[in-house]
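Hey, sorry to bother you again with one of my protein questions. A protein chain has come my way and I'm curious about its shape. It would help a lot if you went through both lines with me. I owe you a coffee for this, so here goes:
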Amino acid sequence: MNNKKIVITIGREYGSGGHAIAELIAKQLDIPLYDRNILALASSETGIEENELLDGDERVINPFFEPYFANRYDFNTVSDKLYLTQAKIIREKASEGSCIFVGRCSDYVLADTEDCYHFFIWAPKAARIARIMKEEDIKSEAAAEKILKMIDRQRKSYYQLYTDRKWGSYIGKDMVINSSTLGIAGTAQLIIDFVNKVIN
């Protein structure tokens, strides 16, 4: 890759290996990766403890707790505050130089950003369940599927609350990729090759 600035966003189904793919891309291109570590930056911006922000990370906080957080921090919900703060951080980091973002509506936040490429990673349910069982040391397929459905539902609700797009859609994406076809390393290389082809 040449020295031209590139920004990559990766949306992903839970268990599709999106984070692992992003890690490989970041390592090979030697660029910063922003995923859950954005929470630490958001905590510094808002003064809210990182473990409390975690409740609103890529999920819509349970309405039962909204009055508590609204009274304590003077905003609508933790989800709202976190989205706005993360969006600000994402824009700032993207303006500073090459980097890669995982989730957090980053494709939508950076939709009009030059030299920014957007990808969504999915995989068949069976492949995702197998990956979740291995990575999370879960013995039951039923338990893994329950977690899969819960986290996908949270991500979908969060994404569709703060964007005008359907989660997982090809809209606004350069590529939608089945990670089970080429595997984690192969999918990472496919994205790298795509970006190199575009910028060179």
Notes: The beta strands are 7-12, 33-34, 99-102, 116-122, 175-178.
